[in-house]
Amino acid sequence: MLKINNLVVSYGGIEALKGIDLEVEEGKIVTLVGANGAGKSTTLRTIMGLVKPVSGSILYDGKDLLKEKTQNLTRYGLNLVPEGRRVFADLTVLENLKIGAYCRKDTKGIKEDLEWVFSLFPILKERVWQLSGTLSGGEQQMLAVGRALMARPRLLMMDEPSLGLAPLIVKDIFRIIQEIHKQGVTILLIEQNANAALHIADVGYVMETGRITLKGSGKELLTNEEVKAAYLGHSVKKVI
Amino acid sequence: MRRNTILTAIALLLLIGFLAFADNFFDLYLVRILNLCAIYAILGLSMNLINGFTGLFSLGHAGFMAVGAYVTALLTIPPDVKKQIFYMTPIMSPLDVMNLPFPLALLVGGLLTAFVAYLIGAPALKLKGDYLAIATLGFGEIIRVIFTNTQSITNGALGLKGIPNTTNLWWSFGTALFTLVVIASLIRSSYGRALMAIREDEVAAESMGIHLAKHKNLSFIIGAFFAGIGGGLLGNLLGTIDPKMFTFTLTFNILLIIVLGGMGSLSGSVISAFVVTIANEWLRFLDEQINLGFMVIQGKVGTRMVVFSVLLMVVVLFYRNGLMGNRELTWDQLCNSKIWRGLSARKRGTAIAEGGEK
After folding, report:
1. Residue ranges of the domains in chain B?
2. Higher pLDDT, A38 or B49
3. Which of A80, A102, A147 is best to mutate for the B interface (most B CBs within 10 A)?
4. Chain B: nearest CA to A146, how far in angstroms?
5. Yes or no, beta carbons of A102 and B211 under 8 Å apart
6. I need a labelling partner for A113 at 20 to 30 A (CA). Which of B9, B173, B218, B334 fits?
Protein backbone atom coordinates (compact mmCIF):
# COMPACT_ATOMS: atom_id res chain seq x y z
CA MET A 1 0.00 0.00 0.00
CA LEU A 2 2.70 2.42 1.05
CA LYS A 3 6.25 1.86 -0.13
CA ILE A 4 9.23 3.98 0.79
CA ASN A 5 12.46 3.47 -1.16
CA ASN A 6 15.87 4.72 -0.14
CA LEU A 7 14.52 7.94 1.34
CA VAL A 8 17.10 10.57 2.27
CA VAL A 9 16.04 13.73 4.11
CA SER A 10 18.31 16.40 5.44
CA TYR A 11 17.72 19.48 7.50
CA GLY A 12 20.27 22.02 6.32
CA GLY A 13 23.14 19.61 5.74
CA ILE A 14 22.41 17.27 8.62
CA GLU A 15 20.97 14.03 7.37
CA ALA A 16 17.95 13.03 9.42
CA LEU A 17 17.14 10.03 7.25
CA LYS A 18 20.03 8.23 5.61
CA GLY A 19 18.20 6.15 3.07
CA ILE A 20 15.38 4.14 4.59
CA ASP A 21 13.17 1.46 3.03
CA LEU A 22 9.79 0.77 4.55
CA GLU A 23 6.68 -0.98 3.40
CA VAL A 24 3.17 -0.93 4.76
CA GLU A 25 0.95 -3.70 3.47
CA GLU A 26 -2.78 -3.26 3.32
CA GLY A 27 -4.65 -4.48 6.38
CA LYS A 28 -1.64 -4.61 8.69
CA ILE A 29 -0.55 -2.69 11.73
CA VAL A 30 2.98 -1.56 11.05
CA THR A 31 4.99 0.11 13.73
CA LEU A 32 8.14 2.15 13.60
CA VAL A 33 9.93 2.30 16.92
CA GLY A 34 13.08 4.09 17.92
CA ALA A 35 14.62 6.52 20.36
CA ASN A 36 14.41 10.30 20.23
CA GLY A 37 16.03 11.73 17.13
CA ALA A 38 16.00 8.47 15.24
CA GLY A 39 14.02 10.06 12.42
CA LYS A 40 10.58 8.60 13.06
CA SER A 41 8.70 11.87 12.90
CA THR A 42 10.76 13.03 9.94
CA THR A 43 9.64 9.93 8.08
CA LEU A 44 6.00 10.80 8.74
CA ARG A 45 6.46 14.45 7.90
CA THR A 46 8.02 13.45 4.58
CA ILE A 47 5.15 11.12 3.78
CA MET A 48 2.72 13.96 4.46
CA GLY A 49 4.71 16.27 2.23
CA LEU A 50 5.63 18.68 5.00
CA VAL A 51 9.35 18.09 4.39
CA LYS A 52 10.95 17.69 0.98
CA PRO A 53 13.41 14.81 0.70
CA VAL A 54 16.83 14.94 -0.96
CA SER A 55 16.30 11.68 -2.80
CA GLY A 56 14.25 8.52 -2.71
CA SER A 57 10.63 7.79 -3.48
CA ILE A 58 7.36 7.28 -1.64
CA LEU A 59 4.67 5.35 -3.45
CA TYR A 60 1.09 5.06 -2.23
CA ASP A 61 -1.07 2.71 -4.28
CA GLY A 62 1.41 3.25 -7.10
CA LYS A 63 1.08 7.05 -6.90
CA ASP A 64 4.14 9.17 -6.31
CA LEU A 65 3.36 10.95 -3.04
CA LEU A 66 6.24 13.39 -3.35
CA LYS A 67 4.39 15.10 -6.17
CA GLU A 68 1.15 15.41 -4.20
CA LYS A 69 0.18 18.39 -2.10
CA THR A 70 -0.42 17.77 1.59
CA GLN A 71 -4.04 18.88 1.51
CA ASN A 72 -4.88 16.34 -1.20
CA LEU A 73 -3.65 13.30 0.71
CA THR A 74 -6.86 13.08 2.73
CA ARG A 75 -8.77 12.49 -0.48
CA TYR A 76 -6.70 9.36 -1.11
CA GLY A 77 -7.50 8.01 2.34
CA LEU A 78 -4.17 8.89 3.90
CA ASN A 79 -4.56 10.53 7.29
CA LEU A 80 -2.28 11.66 10.05
CA VAL A 81 -2.82 11.89 13.78
CA PRO A 82 -0.14 14.47 14.45
CA GLU A 83 2.34 14.37 17.27
CA GLY A 84 1.29 16.33 20.32
CA ARG A 85 -2.37 15.94 19.31
CA ARG A 86 -2.79 19.39 17.73
CA VAL A 87 -6.52 19.61 18.25
CA PHE A 88 -8.12 22.94 17.32
CA ALA A 89 -8.19 24.26 20.86
CA ASP A 90 -10.73 27.08 20.50
CA LEU A 91 -13.27 24.95 18.66
CA THR A 92 -15.71 22.53 20.21
CA VAL A 93 -15.26 18.77 20.08
CA LEU A 94 -18.01 18.48 17.48
CA GLU A 95 -16.47 21.18 15.31
CA ASN A 96 -13.12 19.42 15.48
CA LEU A 97 -14.71 16.19 14.32
CA LYS A 98 -16.57 17.95 11.52
CA ILE A 99 -13.36 19.50 10.26
CA GLY A 100 -11.97 15.99 10.09
CA ALA A 101 -14.67 15.20 7.54
CA TYR A 102 -13.99 18.41 5.65
CA CYS A 103 -13.20 16.73 2.32
CA ARG A 104 -16.26 14.52 2.35
CA LYS A 105 -19.60 15.38 0.87
CA ASP A 106 -21.67 12.33 1.86
CA THR A 107 -23.76 13.66 4.74
CA LYS A 108 -25.10 10.24 5.63
CA GLY A 109 -21.67 8.62 5.77
CA ILE A 110 -20.37 11.44 7.92
CA LYS A 111 -23.22 10.90 10.37
CA GLU A 112 -22.47 7.19 10.54
CA ASP A 113 -18.80 7.79 11.12
CA LEU A 114 -19.61 10.31 13.82
CA GLU A 115 -21.61 7.61 15.61
CA TRP A 116 -18.73 5.20 15.09
CA VAL A 117 -16.25 7.65 16.62
CA PHE A 118 -18.62 8.22 19.53
CA SER A 119 -18.92 4.48 20.06
CA LEU A 120 -15.13 4.18 20.12
CA PHE A 121 -14.76 7.17 22.44
CA PRO A 122 -17.92 7.55 24.52
CA ILE A 123 -16.25 10.38 26.48
CA LEU A 124 -16.27 12.55 23.34
CA LYS A 125 -20.01 12.20 23.05
CA GLU A 126 -20.43 13.53 26.56
CA ARG A 127 -18.29 16.52 25.70
CA VAL A 128 -19.42 17.49 22.20
CA TRP A 129 -20.00 21.13 23.18
CA GLN A 130 -16.84 21.54 25.18
CA LEU A 131 -13.93 23.53 23.76
CA SER A 132 -11.34 20.94 22.90
CA GLY A 133 -8.56 22.98 24.51
CA THR A 134 -10.18 22.29 27.87
CA LEU A 135 -10.09 18.51 27.48
CA SER A 136 -7.52 16.44 29.33
CA GLY A 137 -4.50 15.15 27.45
CA GLY A 138 -5.96 11.70 26.99
CA GLU A 139 -9.26 13.07 25.77
CA GLN A 140 -7.46 15.34 23.34
CA GLN A 141 -5.57 12.35 21.98
CA MET A 142 -8.86 10.52 21.54
CA LEU A 143 -10.24 13.56 19.76
CA ALA A 144 -7.21 13.70 17.48
CA VAL A 145 -7.70 10.05 16.57
CA GLY A 146 -11.44 10.55 16.16
CA ARG A 147 -10.88 13.58 13.98
CA ALA A 148 -8.60 11.59 11.68
CA LEU A 149 -11.15 8.76 11.53
CA MET A 150 -13.83 11.19 10.38
CA ALA A 151 -12.06 11.39 7.03
CA ARG A 152 -12.62 7.63 6.69
CA PRO A 153 -8.96 6.84 6.14
CA ARG A 154 -7.60 3.71 4.51
CA LEU A 155 -4.18 4.27 5.98
CA LEU A 156 -4.05 5.95 9.36
CA MET A 157 -0.67 7.21 10.48
CA MET A 158 -0.21 7.98 14.15
CA ASP A 159 2.68 9.91 15.57
CA GLU A 160 3.32 8.99 19.20
CA PRO A 161 -0.28 8.60 20.34
CA SER A 162 0.88 7.62 23.82
CA LEU A 163 3.03 10.69 24.36
CA GLY A 164 2.54 12.22 27.78
CA LEU A 165 -0.42 10.07 28.78
CA ALA A 166 -1.02 8.07 31.93
CA PRO A 167 -0.32 4.31 31.59
CA LEU A 168 -3.98 3.38 31.94
CA ILE A 169 -5.00 5.73 29.15
CA VAL A 170 -2.13 4.48 26.99
CA LYS A 171 -3.57 1.00 27.38
CA ASP A 172 -6.94 2.32 26.31
CA ILE A 173 -5.50 4.04 23.26
CA PHE A 174 -3.73 0.88 22.12
CA ARG A 175 -6.88 -1.15 22.59
CA ILE A 176 -8.74 1.35 20.42
CA ILE A 177 -6.02 1.25 17.76
CA GLN A 178 -6.61 -2.48 17.52
CA GLU A 179 -10.33 -1.92 17.29
CA ILE A 180 -9.92 0.58 14.48
CA HIS A 181 -7.68 -1.90 12.72
CA LYS A 182 -10.40 -4.54 12.95
CA GLN A 183 -12.66 -2.20 10.96
CA GLY A 184 -10.28 -2.54 8.04
CA VAL A 185 -8.04 0.48 8.50
CA THR A 186 -4.35 -0.04 7.84
CA ILE A 187 -2.23 1.54 10.52
CA LEU A 188 1.27 2.96 10.57
CA LEU A 189 2.16 3.58 14.18
CA ILE A 190 5.16 5.58 15.27
CA GLU A 191 6.03 5.04 18.90
CA GLN A 192 8.62 5.45 21.57
CA ASN A 193 6.68 3.07 23.74
CA ALA A 194 8.20 0.10 21.91
CA ASN A 195 6.76 -2.51 24.24
CA ALA A 196 3.15 -1.58 23.72
CA ALA A 197 3.56 -0.85 20.02
CA LEU A 198 5.28 -4.14 19.21
CA HIS A 199 2.64 -6.08 21.12
CA ILE A 200 -0.10 -5.04 18.73
CA ALA A 201 1.97 -4.76 15.54
CA ASP A 202 2.03 -7.22 12.66
CA VAL A 203 5.29 -5.80 11.37
CA GLY A 204 7.81 -3.72 13.24
CA TYR A 205 10.71 -1.58 12.13
CA VAL A 206 13.42 -0.38 14.47
CA MET A 207 15.05 2.91 13.66
CA GLU A 208 18.32 4.32 14.88
CA THR A 209 19.86 7.64 13.89
CA GLY A 210 18.30 7.83 10.48
CA ARG A 211 18.59 4.18 9.51
CA ILE A 212 16.33 1.18 9.83
CA THR A 213 18.36 -1.36 11.72
CA LEU A 214 15.88 -4.16 12.25
CA LYS A 215 12.73 -5.44 10.67
CA GLY A 216 10.51 -8.30 11.73
CA SER A 217 7.14 -9.29 13.03
CA GLY A 218 6.07 -7.71 16.29
CA LYS A 219 6.66 -10.88 18.27
CA GLU A 220 10.10 -11.47 16.81
CA LEU A 221 11.23 -8.01 17.74
CA LEU A 222 9.82 -8.31 21.23
CA THR A 223 12.05 -11.29 21.88
CA ASN A 224 15.05 -9.89 20.06
CA GLU A 225 17.92 -9.30 22.50
CA GLU A 226 19.11 -6.08 20.86
CA VAL A 227 15.67 -4.56 20.93
CA LYS A 228 15.23 -5.62 24.51
CA ALA A 229 18.50 -4.02 25.46
CA ALA A 230 17.82 -0.78 23.68
CA TYR A 231 14.10 -0.20 24.11
CA LEU A 232 12.43 -2.63 26.43
CA GLY A 233 14.87 -2.43 29.29
CA HIS A 234 14.79 -6.07 30.42
CA SER A 235 18.40 -7.02 29.82
CA VAL A 236 19.65 -3.72 31.14
CA LYS A 237 18.65 -4.87 34.58
CA LYS A 238 20.71 -8.02 34.15
CA VAL A 239 23.81 -6.02 33.30
CA ILE A 240 23.40 -3.98 36.43
CA MET B 1 -35.91 26.98 17.16
CA ARG B 2 -39.34 28.48 16.55
CA ARG B 3 -38.94 30.82 19.49
CA ASN B 4 -35.65 32.09 18.05
CA THR B 5 -37.23 32.90 14.69
CA ILE B 6 -39.97 34.84 16.41
CA LEU B 7 -37.49 36.70 18.58
CA THR B 8 -35.39 37.57 15.53
CA ALA B 9 -38.47 38.86 13.73
CA ILE B 10 -39.42 40.97 16.74
CA ALA B 11 -35.89 42.35 17.01
CA LEU B 12 -35.89 43.22 13.30
CA LEU B 13 -39.24 44.98 13.62
CA LEU B 14 -37.99 46.90 16.64
CA LEU B 15 -34.87 47.91 14.71
CA ILE B 16 -36.94 49.07 11.73
CA GLY B 17 -39.24 50.99 14.04
CA PHE B 18 -36.31 52.59 15.79
CA LEU B 19 -34.69 53.55 12.49
CA ALA B 20 -37.92 55.08 11.19
CA PHE B 21 -38.22 57.03 14.42
CA ALA B 22 -34.59 58.13 14.33
CA ASP B 23 -34.85 59.09 10.67
CA ASN B 24 -37.75 61.43 11.36
CA PHE B 25 -37.17 62.82 14.81
CA PHE B 26 -33.44 62.66 15.68
CA ASP B 27 -31.26 65.66 14.88
CA LEU B 28 -28.61 65.40 12.16
CA TYR B 29 -25.77 64.98 14.63
CA LEU B 30 -27.33 61.89 16.23
CA VAL B 31 -28.25 60.42 12.86
CA ARG B 32 -24.68 60.88 11.66
CA ILE B 33 -23.35 59.07 14.76
CA LEU B 34 -25.78 56.21 14.23
CA ASN B 35 -24.68 55.97 10.60
CA LEU B 36 -21.06 55.89 11.66
CA CYS B 37 -21.85 53.15 14.20
CA ALA B 38 -23.34 50.96 11.49
CA ILE B 39 -20.47 51.62 9.09
CA TYR B 40 -17.92 50.81 11.75
CA ALA B 41 -19.87 47.63 12.49
CA ILE B 42 -19.47 46.64 8.82
CA LEU B 43 -15.75 47.40 8.96
CA GLY B 44 -15.33 45.59 12.27
CA LEU B 45 -17.15 42.51 11.01
CA SER B 46 -15.09 42.35 7.84
CA MET B 47 -11.81 42.81 9.69
CA ASN B 48 -12.85 40.24 12.26
CA LEU B 49 -13.39 37.70 9.49
CA ILE B 50 -9.77 38.15 8.39
CA ASN B 51 -8.06 38.74 11.74
CA GLY B 52 -10.30 37.07 14.27
CA PHE B 53 -11.62 34.02 12.47
CA THR B 54 -8.89 33.18 10.01
CA GLY B 55 -6.07 34.40 12.24
CA LEU B 56 -4.42 36.46 9.51
CA PHE B 57 -3.03 39.55 11.17
CA SER B 58 -3.83 41.98 8.38
CA LEU B 59 -3.54 45.73 8.74
CA GLY B 60 -4.55 46.77 5.25
CA HIS B 61 -8.12 47.72 6.03
CA ALA B 62 -7.70 51.46 5.51
CA GLY B 63 -6.31 50.76 2.06
CA PHE B 64 -9.28 48.58 1.15
CA MET B 65 -11.66 51.23 2.43
CA ALA B 66 -9.89 53.85 0.34
CA VAL B 67 -10.39 51.81 -2.82
CA GLY B 68 -14.07 51.28 -2.05
CA ALA B 69 -14.66 54.89 -1.07
CA TYR B 70 -12.95 56.34 -4.16
CA VAL B 71 -14.60 53.98 -6.61
CA THR B 72 -18.05 54.58 -5.17
CA ALA B 73 -17.51 58.33 -5.00
CA LEU B 74 -16.20 58.59 -8.56
CA LEU B 75 -19.14 56.60 -9.84
CA THR B 76 -21.78 58.62 -7.99
CA ILE B 77 -20.56 62.22 -8.36
CA PRO B 78 -22.56 63.87 -11.16
CA PRO B 79 -20.44 64.68 -14.28
CA ASP B 80 -20.83 68.46 -14.06
CA VAL B 81 -19.71 68.45 -10.42
CA LYS B 82 -16.68 66.38 -11.42
CA LYS B 83 -15.62 69.10 -13.85
CA GLN B 84 -15.70 71.63 -11.01
CA ILE B 85 -13.64 69.61 -8.52
CA PHE B 86 -10.97 68.52 -10.96
CA TYR B 87 -9.80 72.09 -11.61
CA MET B 88 -6.06 71.35 -11.29
CA THR B 89 -5.89 68.43 -13.71
CA PRO B 90 -8.97 67.39 -15.68
CA ILE B 91 -10.37 63.97 -14.94
CA MET B 92 -9.49 61.02 -17.20
CA SER B 93 -11.77 60.43 -20.16
CA PRO B 94 -14.14 57.54 -19.36
CA LEU B 95 -14.48 58.54 -15.73
CA ASP B 96 -15.77 62.05 -16.38
CA VAL B 97 -19.08 60.86 -17.81
CA MET B 98 -19.47 57.64 -15.83
CA ASN B 99 -22.36 57.68 -13.42
CA LEU B 100 -24.10 54.81 -11.70
CA PRO B 101 -26.91 54.59 -9.18
CA PHE B 102 -25.66 54.35 -5.60
CA PRO B 103 -26.26 50.63 -4.91
CA LEU B 104 -24.57 49.63 -8.16
CA ALA B 105 -21.65 51.96 -7.50
CA LEU B 106 -21.31 50.48 -4.02
CA LEU B 107 -21.25 46.98 -5.46
CA VAL B 108 -18.66 47.90 -8.08
CA GLY B 109 -16.59 49.52 -5.31
CA GLY B 110 -16.78 46.33 -3.25
CA LEU B 111 -15.90 44.10 -6.19
CA LEU B 112 -12.93 46.23 -7.23
CA THR B 113 -11.68 46.22 -3.65
CA ALA B 114 -12.01 42.45 -3.61
CA PHE B 115 -9.98 42.31 -6.81
CA VAL B 116 -7.25 44.48 -5.29
CA ALA B 117 -7.27 42.17 -2.25
CA TYR B 118 -6.88 39.21 -4.58
CA LEU B 119 -3.82 40.80 -6.17
CA ILE B 120 -2.33 41.68 -2.80
CA GLY B 121 -3.30 38.42 -1.14
CA ALA B 122 -1.69 36.12 -3.67
CA PRO B 123 1.86 37.04 -2.62
CA ALA B 124 1.26 38.48 0.86
CA LEU B 125 -0.75 35.61 2.35
CA LYS B 126 2.26 33.35 2.04
CA LEU B 127 3.64 35.33 4.96
CA LYS B 128 2.68 34.61 8.53
CA GLY B 129 2.11 36.58 11.72
CA ASP B 130 4.00 39.85 12.08
CA TYR B 131 5.37 39.69 8.56
CA LEU B 132 1.90 39.59 7.09
CA ALA B 133 0.96 42.56 9.28
CA ILE B 134 3.92 44.57 7.99
CA ALA B 135 3.26 43.61 4.36
CA THR B 136 -0.45 44.49 4.48
CA LEU B 137 0.30 47.70 6.35
CA GLY B 138 2.71 48.55 3.55
CA PHE B 139 0.12 47.80 0.90
CA GLY B 140 -2.38 50.04 2.65
CA GLU B 141 0.12 52.89 2.59
CA ILE B 142 1.01 52.18 -1.05
CA ILE B 143 -2.64 52.51 -2.04
CA ARG B 144 -2.83 55.81 -0.20
CA VAL B 145 0.32 57.13 -1.87
CA ILE B 146 -0.92 56.04 -5.29
CA PHE B 147 -4.20 57.85 -4.69
CA THR B 148 -2.32 60.99 -3.69
CA ASN B 149 -0.36 60.99 -6.91
CA THR B 150 -2.86 59.92 -9.58
CA GLN B 151 -4.18 63.44 -9.99
CA SER B 152 -6.29 62.74 -13.07
CA ILE B 153 -8.20 59.90 -11.44
CA THR B 154 -8.48 60.72 -7.76
CA ASN B 155 -7.82 64.47 -7.78
CA GLY B 156 -4.73 63.75 -5.65
CA ALA B 157 -4.30 65.44 -2.30
CA LEU B 158 -7.21 67.79 -2.98
CA GLY B 159 -9.58 64.90 -2.50
CA LEU B 160 -13.09 64.50 -3.82
CA LYS B 161 -15.83 66.89 -2.81
CA GLY B 162 -19.49 67.11 -3.61
CA ILE B 163 -20.17 63.40 -3.24
CA PRO B 164 -23.94 62.99 -3.01
CA ASN B 165 -24.99 62.27 0.57
CA THR B 166 -26.90 59.15 -0.32
CA THR B 167 -25.97 57.15 2.76
CA ASN B 168 -28.81 57.28 5.24
CA LEU B 169 -29.82 55.11 8.16
CA TRP B 170 -31.54 52.60 5.90
CA TRP B 171 -28.49 52.13 3.72
CA SER B 172 -25.98 51.88 6.54
CA PHE B 173 -28.03 49.62 8.82
CA GLY B 174 -29.30 47.56 5.90
CA THR B 175 -25.77 46.93 4.67
CA ALA B 176 -24.56 46.22 8.20
CA LEU B 177 -27.32 43.64 8.61
CA PHE B 178 -26.50 42.12 5.24
CA THR B 179 -22.80 41.93 6.18
CA LEU B 180 -23.67 40.30 9.49
CA VAL B 181 -25.88 37.70 7.82
CA VAL B 182 -23.35 36.87 5.10
CA ILE B 183 -20.36 36.61 7.43
CA ALA B 184 -22.33 34.71 10.10
CA SER B 185 -23.52 32.13 7.60
CA LEU B 186 -20.02 31.85 6.19
CA ILE B 187 -18.64 31.22 9.68
CA ARG B 188 -21.27 28.58 10.40
CA SER B 189 -20.63 26.70 7.15
CA SER B 190 -17.90 24.13 6.71
CA TYR B 191 -15.80 26.91 5.15
CA GLY B 192 -16.03 28.80 8.41
CA ARG B 193 -14.87 25.78 10.37
CA ALA B 194 -11.98 25.39 7.94
CA LEU B 195 -11.02 29.04 8.47
CA MET B 196 -11.03 28.59 12.24
CA ALA B 197 -9.03 25.39 11.88
CA ILE B 198 -6.41 27.37 9.97
CA ARG B 199 -6.35 29.92 12.77
CA GLU B 200 -5.84 27.22 15.38
CA ASP B 201 -3.21 25.10 13.68
CA GLU B 202 -2.11 25.35 10.07
CA VAL B 203 -0.29 22.03 9.90
CA ALA B 204 -3.15 20.08 11.41
CA ALA B 205 -5.63 21.89 9.17
CA GLU B 206 -3.60 21.06 6.09
CA SER B 207 -3.42 17.40 7.02
CA MET B 208 -7.21 17.41 7.38
CA GLY B 209 -7.30 18.24 3.68
CA ILE B 210 -7.91 21.97 3.97
CA HIS B 211 -6.36 23.96 1.12
CA LEU B 212 -4.56 26.71 3.06
CA ALA B 213 -3.94 29.25 0.30
CA LYS B 214 -7.44 28.96 -1.13
CA HIS B 215 -9.18 29.48 2.20
CA LYS B 216 -6.92 32.31 3.32
CA ASN B 217 -7.54 34.09 0.03
CA LEU B 218 -11.26 33.53 0.31
CA SER B 219 -11.39 35.08 3.75
CA PHE B 220 -9.13 37.96 2.72
CA ILE B 221 -11.17 38.74 -0.39
CA ILE B 222 -14.56 38.59 1.33
CA GLY B 223 -13.23 40.75 4.17
CA ALA B 224 -11.88 43.27 1.66
CA PHE B 225 -15.16 43.28 -0.27
CA PHE B 226 -17.07 44.41 2.81
CA ALA B 227 -14.31 46.84 3.77
CA GLY B 228 -14.71 48.42 0.31
CA ILE B 229 -18.46 48.66 0.77
CA GLY B 230 -17.96 50.18 4.21
CA GLY B 231 -15.57 52.70 2.68
CA GLY B 232 -18.08 53.55 -0.04
CA LEU B 233 -20.82 54.13 2.52
CA LEU B 234 -18.49 56.31 4.56
CA GLY B 235 -17.54 58.43 1.54
CA ASN B 236 -21.16 59.01 0.61
CA LEU B 237 -22.01 59.79 4.21
CA LEU B 238 -19.33 62.43 4.69
CA GLY B 239 -19.62 63.94 1.23
CA THR B 240 -15.90 64.47 0.93
CA ILE B 241 -12.89 62.19 0.98
CA ASP B 242 -9.16 62.70 0.63
CA PRO B 243 -6.20 60.32 0.90
CA LYS B 244 -5.27 61.58 4.38
CA MET B 245 -8.45 60.03 5.76
CA PHE B 246 -7.19 56.54 5.05
CA THR B 247 -4.03 56.45 7.12
CA PHE B 248 -3.04 53.76 9.58
CA THR B 249 -5.08 55.51 12.29
CA LEU B 250 -8.25 54.35 10.59
CA THR B 251 -7.06 50.74 10.57
CA PHE B 252 -6.12 51.17 14.21
CA ASN B 253 -9.64 52.32 15.05
CA ILE B 254 -11.14 49.21 13.50
CA LEU B 255 -8.54 47.01 15.14
CA LEU B 256 -9.48 48.63 18.45
CA ILE B 257 -13.11 47.73 17.82
CA ILE B 258 -12.42 44.07 17.12
CA VAL B 259 -9.93 43.67 19.97
CA LEU B 260 -12.34 45.29 22.43
CA GLY B 261 -15.26 43.28 21.11
CA GLY B 262 -13.34 40.03 21.01
CA MET B 263 -11.39 38.54 18.15
CA GLY B 264 -13.61 35.83 16.80
CA SER B 265 -16.97 37.17 17.93
CA LEU B 266 -19.34 38.81 15.46
CA SER B 267 -21.73 40.09 18.09
CA GLY B 268 -18.73 41.43 20.01
CA SER B 269 -17.63 43.42 16.96
CA VAL B 270 -21.08 44.92 16.48
CA ILE B 271 -21.49 45.87 20.13
CA SER B 272 -18.00 47.28 20.33
CA ALA B 273 -18.44 49.25 17.07
CA PHE B 274 -21.38 51.04 18.66
CA VAL B 275 -19.66 51.54 22.00
CA VAL B 276 -16.43 52.86 20.51
CA THR B 277 -18.10 55.17 18.00
CA ILE B 278 -20.47 56.63 20.55
CA ALA B 279 -17.73 56.96 23.15
CA ASN B 280 -15.56 58.65 20.56
CA GLU B 281 -18.17 61.40 20.30
CA TRP B 282 -19.12 61.50 23.93
CA LEU B 283 -15.51 61.89 25.04
CA ARG B 284 -15.17 65.02 22.94
CA PHE B 285 -15.46 67.10 26.13
CA LEU B 286 -11.92 65.97 26.93
CA ASP B 287 -10.66 67.88 23.90
CA GLU B 288 -12.22 71.08 25.13
CA GLN B 289 -11.52 73.33 28.06
CA ILE B 290 -12.53 71.65 31.30
CA ASN B 291 -13.51 73.83 34.24
CA LEU B 292 -13.14 71.96 37.50
CA GLY B 293 -14.19 74.94 39.61
CA PHE B 294 -10.85 75.48 41.33
CA MET B 295 -8.79 75.14 38.15
CA VAL B 296 -9.23 75.20 34.41
CA ILE B 297 -7.61 72.54 32.23
CA GLN B 298 -6.84 73.77 28.75
CA GLY B 299 -8.09 71.18 26.29
CA LYS B 300 -5.80 69.62 23.73
CA VAL B 301 -7.26 68.14 20.57
CA GLY B 302 -6.75 64.39 20.60
CA THR B 303 -6.90 63.86 24.36
CA ARG B 304 -9.84 61.51 23.90
CA MET B 305 -7.69 59.19 21.80
CA VAL B 306 -5.48 58.72 24.87
CA VAL B 307 -8.48 57.18 26.62
CA PHE B 308 -8.79 54.60 23.88
CA SER B 309 -5.08 53.85 23.93
CA VAL B 310 -5.18 53.28 27.67
CA LEU B 311 -8.33 51.19 27.29
CA LEU B 312 -6.65 49.06 24.66
CA MET B 313 -3.65 48.51 26.93
CA VAL B 314 -5.88 47.50 29.83
CA VAL B 315 -7.81 45.11 27.61
CA VAL B 316 -4.66 43.53 26.21
CA LEU B 317 -3.16 43.16 29.67
CA PHE B 318 -6.12 41.99 31.69
CA TYR B 319 -8.99 40.96 29.43
CA ARG B 320 -7.24 39.46 26.46
CA ASN B 321 -10.47 38.00 25.12
CA GLY B 322 -12.19 41.35 24.95
CA LEU B 323 -15.86 41.83 25.61
CA MET B 324 -17.14 38.57 24.15
CA GLY B 325 -14.05 36.42 23.60
CA ASN B 326 -15.06 34.08 20.83
CA ARG B 327 -18.57 33.56 22.11
CA GLU B 328 -21.62 34.87 20.34
CA LEU B 329 -24.70 36.52 21.68
CA THR B 330 -27.56 34.20 20.80
CA TRP B 331 -31.19 34.05 21.78
CA ASP B 332 -30.60 30.77 23.57
CA GLN B 333 -27.91 32.36 25.64
CA LEU B 334 -30.02 35.41 26.42
CA CYS B 335 -32.98 33.28 27.45
CA ASN B 336 -30.79 31.11 29.64
CA SER B 337 -28.94 34.01 31.23
CA LYS B 338 -29.40 34.52 34.96
CA ILE B 339 -31.22 37.85 34.67
CA TRP B 340 -33.85 36.56 32.32
CA ARG B 341 -34.34 33.34 34.21
CA GLY B 342 -34.62 35.28 37.45
CA LEU B 343 -37.31 37.49 35.92
CA SER B 344 -39.34 34.68 34.44
CA ALA B 345 -39.00 32.58 37.58
CA ARG B 346 -40.39 35.45 39.63
CA LYS B 347 -43.25 35.84 37.19
CA ARG B 348 -44.01 32.15 37.38
CA GLY B 349 -43.67 32.29 41.16
CA THR B 350 -46.22 35.08 41.46
CA ALA B 351 -48.52 33.32 39.05
CA ILE B 352 -48.40 30.20 41.18
CA ALA B 353 -48.93 32.24 44.34
CA GLU B 354 -51.90 34.00 42.85
CA GLY B 355 -53.31 30.71 41.67
CA GLY B 356 -52.90 29.31 45.17
CA GLU B 357 -54.81 32.16 46.73
CA LYS B 358 -57.71 31.61 44.47
Report:
1. 26-327, 329-358
2. B49
3. A102
4. 12
5. no
6. B218
